[in-house]
Amino acid sequence: MKDFRELENEIKKASDKFTNIESINEFRIKFLGKKGIISLEMKGLASLSGEQRKQHAEKLNKIKDSVLEIIASKTEELNSEELEKKLNSETLDITLSTSKSYGTIHPISQVIEEVITIFGDLDFFVAEGPEVETDYNNFTALNTSEHHPARQMHDTFYVETETDGMPNVLRTHTSPVQIRSMLKQKPPIRLIAPGKTFRCDNDQTHSPMFHQVEGLVIDQESNMSHLKGCLEIFLKTFFETDKLNMRFRPSHFPFTEPSAEVDIGYTKKGNQLIIGEGEDWLEILGCGMVHPNVLENVNINSDEYQGYAFGMGIERLAMLKYGISDLRTFFDSDLRWNKHYGFSPLNIPSIIGDLS
Amino acid sequence: MKFSYSWLTEHLKTNANFEEIEKKLTSIGLEVDDIQDTGKLYQDFIVGQVLEEKKHPNADKLKLCKVDIGKEKVDVVCGAPNVEKGMKVVYAPVGSTIPVNQMKIKAAKIRGVESYGMMCSEYELGISNEHDGIIRLEEKETIGRSFSEIYGSNDIVIEIGITPNRQDCLGVKGIARDLASAGMGELLERKIFREKGRFNSPIKIEIQDNKICSAFAGRYFRNVKNTESPEWLKNKLKSIGLRPISALVDITNFVMYDENRPLHVYDADKIDGKIIVRAANDGERFLALDEKSYQLKNGMCVIADEKKVLGLGGIMGGESTGCSTETTNVLLESALFDEINTAKTGRNLSILSDARYRFERGIDPNSTLKGIDLATQLILEICGGECSEVELAGSIKENKNEVSTSSSYISRRLGFEVSDKELRSILSSLGIETNQKGDVIKCSIPSWRQDIHGEADISEEVIRIKGYENIPTSNIRLKSKINQNILNYAQKKLVKARHFIASIGYDELVTFSFTDSKNCEVFGDINKLKIVNPISEELNILRPNLLPNLLHAIKKNMNRNFDSFSIFEIGSQYRSTSPEDQLNIVCGIKSGIKTEKSWKNNQTEFDIYDVKQDVTSLIDHLMPGNKKISISNECPSWYHPGRSGSIIINNSVVAGYFGELHPRVASQFKIKNRTNIFELYLDKLPNTEKKTTNKPVLNLSEFQIVTRDFAFVIDKKVKGEEVVTSAFKVDKELIRNVEIFDLFEDDSLGNDKKSIAIKVTLQSNEKTLAENDISEISSKIIKSVEKSTSGTVRS
Lengths: 356, 795
What we know:
The complex is a heterodimer of chains A (about 350) and B (about 800).
Chain A: H1 5-15, H2 21-32, H3 37-44, H4 50-89, H5 107-121, E1 125-126, E2 132-133, H6 135-138, H7 149-152, E3 158-163, E4 166-170, H8 176-184, E5 189-198, E6 209-219, H9 224-238, E7 246-253, E8 256-269, E9 272-275, E10 280-290, H10 292-297, E11 306-313, H11 314-322, H12 335-341
Parallel strand pairs in A: 1-5
Antiparallel strand pairs in A: 2-4, 3-4, 5-6, 6-11, 7-8, 8-9, 8-10, 10-11
Helix pairs in contact in A: 2-4, 5-11
Chain B: E1 2-4, H1 5-9, E2 12-13, H2 18-27, E3 31-37, H3 38-41, E4 46-56, E5 59-68, E6 73-78, E7 88-92, E8 97-98, E9 103-104, E10 108-110, E11 113-115, E12 118-119, H4 147-150, E13 156-161, H5 172-181, E14 186-187, E15 205-207, E16 213-222, H6 231-239, H7 247-259, E17 264-267, E18 275-279, E19 285-287, E20 293-295, E21 301-304, E22 309-312, E23 316-317, E24 330-337, H8 339-349, H9 354-359, H10 367-383, E25 386-387, E26 391-394, E27 402-405, H11 407-414, H12 420-429, E28 433-437, E29 440-444, H13 455-466, H14 489-503, E30 507-508, E31 514-515, E32 541-542, H15 547-558, E33 564-574, E34 582-595, E35 604-605, H16 608-622, E36 629-632, E37 639-649, E38 653-661, H17 663-668, E39 675-681, E40 706-715, H18 720-728, E41 735-744, E42 753-762, H19 771-789, E43 792-793
Parallel strand pairs in B: 15-18, 30-33
Antiparallel strand pairs in B: 1-13, 2-14, 3-13, 4-5, 4-7, 5-6, 7-12, 8-9, 10-11, 16-24, 16-25, 16-26, 17-24, 18-21, 19-20, 21-22, 22-23, 27-29, 28-29, 31-32, 33-34, 34-35, 34-39, 36-37, 37-38, 38-39, 40-42, 40-43, 41-42
Helix pairs in contact in B: 6-7, 7-10, 11-13, 14-16, 18-19
């Protein structure tokens, strides 16, 4: 019987010299290639007979298996060495970065969207009106006749166009949207109207342009206690607090009767305002029961229908909630300010996200 | 409206302490704006006397004074022009705080000389606006005495905001009456002696137009001495910030603030003939007590004599009949002027006066004669002399308002049950007499409440006195939803656009709706956009476009060292100042550095392809699904003509523009960088409100995808898009995509030529494409492109 020891030695010797994948390949060809040593031996089996062929075949198959195993394990070994080398050469300085790519949402937009989200949940819809208004919609229809002293408190901007012989104005409040909406739609009505408003006033605490949100509810039963309930839910949700001291006190607006101004409690901790609790009061909005004259002006029967209205300043809400101290900075377009006070564009106030 | 606590208690008998009164005032709608405890405010200030006064060695306008303040003599450097030896002054010692600016007085060297404390003007103490000189106290004041004992008699001064409807509270008595109604005590009636008069007034009164003045009561006084007012009267006026002038003037001011009854006194010797109340003639001139001359207009209410205008009714008296210390005979006026006429005249002539303020809000007609009586009593007491009978022209109509209401109406409006009994008791406390028949309660409104006209007004009175804190809170959630969208399609577009644009790197700005007409001609017709009374010349028109303010913003931020801008605004721009000429626009700008030079990148700058990409992605975001966006060359004149395009949707609507800002416009706004802008007219985007929530059917082919590249040499003028569309139209089924991947310009092609290379992606839904299928379609593509671009394929 043939001794394959020589073959086994040769295999062992060759397998010690592996340095890369090519040498493994050469090794495979040398022993298992078409003309490889083992292949030739296999062919030689045909000339043998009987028991001898069987014994040789067994032996050769064993040797072949061992060669395959050597190839597999050496390949694996070399691959992982290769990878290790690659990994070592591929380190990056992870402390470096490229610049950020998101922009920002202006605080006015953010607050308006928050307000819409809260009132939307209470079944209000969003109404709109133009920023240039007729004198009639801005004043007269709202029970503010031409010589009403309240008009002088408004510091109205006038433009050169006229409607029905009266110069048009830049709306001094969002209340004319009440008139436009009630002329279009019969009660029940539940609306809010956020938007730009204008007054001819420019100093530390006044800007010639600012934003308000108007609210209007008209049906057969809404009353002062609903108004109080409505504003309480709104303010608590908006300021994201469970505790909110709220104070109604009498005031006067020509288009509501009774009229009220609403204060909320606050305390000061250092430079920070804590909204909700405390002995001090901040004026936050004006409201009241819609004056019957206003309803009659839009052909709604004031014996059958009644309701409430409110209006508040968006900038004021933003300043109190987000600790912005100067009104005029909102429109100053100082990018340092916008980047600091702006909001992430991907956080849209909604029930599946946060309010702010 | 200012008043002192002691003045209030002359009208109100109360057991309440000051804090309770203060709270109640706000809770009944008389909002407390400010409280000043003059006792505390002035307790540190003391009476001093200037012993010596000489020039400051180092400053011409300053003086060195030695001031005796009782316990010691101090050196004070003083800049007041009126300081002189012997003068009694108000001295603010080191450590005291100046009321007007909260400045704490410290010992300091002024121009090299030590100064201890300060001598004060009325302005510095918050007494008046007088700041030309320091206060000269009377000779008799004792050195070292606290100023609070002299001034304001340790009183508390309260300032309340009066809403336009509450004319009744423009006098201290009215405030007391409202507090008494709200349970804070009892209203005290002043005892006024009604003087009959000893003779007929020699000055007759004629009202020619009773629409502008319904009543005019006059009383003649002779042999009066218009002296200085007594201390009590001066102190009262000073406590509320009024300057005492002379007894006659002070008395009319007192009656106005006490009873809310404006009066006027004329020097009777300067009146020619009778008093005539009439409408002014156009162009008539009048010199008022404020020393200004006014040109009057037809219809304004004037008080005249037979020769001249003496006063503007309800607004201001005139110089010609003003009272001086020499005055001996006077005519006292108490009249009823029309509210609207007074308001119009006052506004027209821009005169603000206490009288106007009161008349345009409405005056209690019953105060006409009461005012005469109170003033008469004070004039006779202080100035002596004797008075005539009251001469009354016109008539005092009481015009009592009657309002009918019911407890059910009030309850329905307020949201809680108010009984008949409670309702009537509250109304009665306000002086409103009631009379009930069945459910109807008839209310008779007192003459001092000019603001109560209807049932709604009654509901306010009820809750005001009952207290707004007693309004319960009711739930407003609806049992069934109102079937209305919170935001409509157009409103949602705005929100979506805002978040999308910000998410791709733009910062949102909100700028004014006004802008400077300068440099804006290019954007619109500025003559149609004028604001009549702009806040400043730089904000004199409504913006015809969002760009001007955004460009100003870029310029401003460049000065703050920013060199990369991605900003946008969503808002309205205007075609004219008519309400319907307002458009909703998104305007974005990318300018300056896109990527900073860094360890990773070379510096690159924004170009028009950035904004094109952004605005077309925005349209995709706003209108997902089927639409065709094409680009045309025509752009408004503020765009660079060779680097801009308009965006056309479905071959019909121009929805916006993108491109580089025209260099001329850029230089007008002083911007040097290339500025890339887009504008999208949100209102013009076709409505794609979904009819179904289902998405279109998706057909996926399992067969192999093949790509082929082609390059064409074409004229530079021909747009790349032409190559793409002409390739696409060859086979809409097999051609899945056509994309330009190379643009090459070189003299070797000819200087008016360029090479454009496209990659065409092919796939069939039915089979794997064979080589002959592909070559067939390839030659069709070449033919089609060559035909429509007049170009040639490069081989």
